[in-house]
Task: inverse folding
């Protein structure tokens, strides 16, 4: 049994014990349920980035009723790469926040290709606090290549904004469901990605860095991105295996971009079921289960029960000691 | 006039095991003196990177550091291979740095105040945060919480460890969740940013200290220059993402020279000690 199997096994077991695995039909909770002839990781990356794929507002308008968008972080400006507001899901109020990509080049320029600035994350945090204040569940939609890495973003504290957003989500006292729609790009995605349940569309990806970025650093060339995509294990089945996603939402044959309505319907079914379940869990339990969910990530070995192994002996000591051990000298 | 043997080996004027050149002012620094000065150039005040053990010597009271989880080592969750398999990279880093992973954690005293101290070492795979770093820091924060001792983390890291993929990314949430509990319980957390602190480490616990201190001239930023230039095709200006830049923009509380770091941390710990002790009695 490999290390990964054991880790995955333990994650599975605890998730089931917590009642955390979504059991609703239609969700894929096991990689074996996926159709054979899966696209390669690199093809999945391309599908996740497909410009015709449904983006946050496409999903919001189909899944929620009466969505009213709220703007601005109350400090600097309104970031068009993050959208959010109040809406109703099956008749009950929710707060929804998502990263917004464009479906054309012009719109993408306006939306900064879905790469939020710090003020975007601060707007998201404002909405999270609103959800908590009025006891309204939160739904986040993740779809970003990453947080914007430009000089202005650095000046306004991109790292701090992401860190604070993650921190707020870990302690947010309402049910939180995360849906990864397309690209889950690193910390910029995680800033919207800490929830009680994390779902992903079948062809979504979630990675620590873009395959191009990984290739640029480890292979020193962005053209090795395809190899990096394979090594990084960023596609659907891998996310299930590592527990990064609790379940995958089935896409129409041919991918989400071929049928926005069907994709949205599948997302809606999943969201209603999850929020129904989560809204019955006491908030204190919700928070401790959320802590445990993220606490459990990591594989490591502790060969010596926490104490430091003896330092290696210098060579002359090893030579000298051996005859002594045998009672020599 | 001295005659030179034309066939003899020319002795270098400044052999590298004895001398180090300061990258800022170009002064040749005698290594022993540099060590005594905790890696600070006496001429211009340039702060060299400090290893974890030297950092602990600098901050903790003599012999007060008691390491926890000293044996924890990384496994290879993804079977990751770039130009070298990940386990080989770990073995090489262990041999080079003498540590088992990129952070040392343990109980310590700073000017007599008991703390939980975590110190990252850039020598080990760029101080990158994978499962081991995440787990050790989380345990350190949990210990700080259960014993109501302040947590001091000295960061030196390039970010998340790519070789552990999305699991490394999840360490951001894991460590942040742990320090968020300290925040709620009003247990002080002091974050010290040293050269360099970038990427996923800055975008998680390192930015969230009650007090955030930085060493002079340290590289501190969200995205590395190489990633940025590959992603957006722009070159970044020089002197950008340094401690003083972050101070100016309001993301660190103070830039503290290394020589004053210990007393400054002790000052803040003392100021906040009242709060944590009050809470301890009420438990």
Result:
């Amino acid at each position: 049994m490999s290390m990964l199997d054991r880790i995955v096994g333990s994650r599975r077991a605890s998730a089931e014990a917590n009642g955390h695995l979504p059991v609703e039909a239609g969700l894929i909770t096991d990689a074996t349920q996926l159709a054979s002839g899966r696209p390669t990781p690199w093809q999945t990356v391309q599908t996740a980035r497909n410009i015709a794929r449904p983006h946050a507002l496409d999903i919001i308008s189909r899944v929620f009723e009466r969505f009213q968008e709220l703007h601005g972080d109350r400090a600097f400006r309104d970031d068009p790469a993050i959208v959010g507001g109040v809406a109703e899901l099956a008749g009950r109020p929710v707060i929804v926040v998502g990263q917004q990509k464009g479906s054309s080049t012009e719109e993408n320029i306006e939306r900064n290709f879905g790469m939020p600035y710090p003020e975007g994350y601060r707007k998201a945090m404002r909405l999270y606090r609103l959800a908590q204040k009025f006891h309204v569940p939160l739904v986040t939609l993740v779809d970003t290549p990453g947080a914007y890495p430009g000089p202005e973003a650095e000046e306004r504290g991109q790292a701090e904004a992401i860190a604070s957003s993650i921190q707020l989500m870990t302690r947010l006292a309402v049910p939180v469901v995360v849906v990864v729609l397309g690209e889950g790009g690193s910390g910029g995605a995680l800033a919207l990605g800490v929830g009680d349940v994390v779902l992903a569309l079948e062809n979504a990806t979630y990675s620590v860095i873009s395959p191009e970025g990984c290739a640029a650093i480890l292979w020193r060339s962005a053209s090795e991105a395809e190899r990096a995509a394979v090594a990084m294990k960023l596609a659907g089945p891998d996310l299930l295996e590592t527990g990064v996603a609790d379940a995958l939402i089935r896409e129409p044959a041919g991918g989400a971009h071929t049928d926005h309505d069907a994709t949205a319907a599948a997302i809606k079914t999943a969201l209603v079921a999850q929020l129904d379940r989560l809204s019955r869990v006491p908030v204190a339990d919700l928070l401790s289960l959320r802590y445990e969910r993220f606490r459990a990530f990591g594989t490591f070995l502790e060969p010596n029960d926490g104490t430091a192994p003896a330092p290696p002996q210098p060579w002359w000591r090893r030579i000298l000691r051996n005859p002594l051990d045998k009672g020599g000298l | 006039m001295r005659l030179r043997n034309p066939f003899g080996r020319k002795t270098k004027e400044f052999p590298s095991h004895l001398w180090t050149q300061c990258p800022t002012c170009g002064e040749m620094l005698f290594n022993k003196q540099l060590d005594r000065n905790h890696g600070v150039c006496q001429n211009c005040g340039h702060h060299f990177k400090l290893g974890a053990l030297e950092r602990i010597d600098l901050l903790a009271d003599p012999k007060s550091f008691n390491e926890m989880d000293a044996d924890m080592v990384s496994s290879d969750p993804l079977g990751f291979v770039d130009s070298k398999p990940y386990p080989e990279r770990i073995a090489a880093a262990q041999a080079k740095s003498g540590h088992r992973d990129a952070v040392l954690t343990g109980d310590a005293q700073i000017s007599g105040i008991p703390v939980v101290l975590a110190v990252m070492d850039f020598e080990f795979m760029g101080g990158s945060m994978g499962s081991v770093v995440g787990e050790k820091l989380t345990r350190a924060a949990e210990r700080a919480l259960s014993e109501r001792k302040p947590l001091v983390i000295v960061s030196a890291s390039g970010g998340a460890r790519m070789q552990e993929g999305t699991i490394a990314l999840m360490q951001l949430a894991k460590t942040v969740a742990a320090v968020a509990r300290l925040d709620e319980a009003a247990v002080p957390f002091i974050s010290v940013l040293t050269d360099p602190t970038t990427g996923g480490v800055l975008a998680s616990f390192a930015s969230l200290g009650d007090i955030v201190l930085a060493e002079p001239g340290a590289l501190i930023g969200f995205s590395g220059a190489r990633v940025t230039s590959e992603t957006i095709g722009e070159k970044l200006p020089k002197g950008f993402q340094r401690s003083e830049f972050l101070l100016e923009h309001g993301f660190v509380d103070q830039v503290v020279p290394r020589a004053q770091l210990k007393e400054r941390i002790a000052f803040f710990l003392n100021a906040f000690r009242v709060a944590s002790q009050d809470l301890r009695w009420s438990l």
Notes: Chain B has a mean pLDDT of 89.
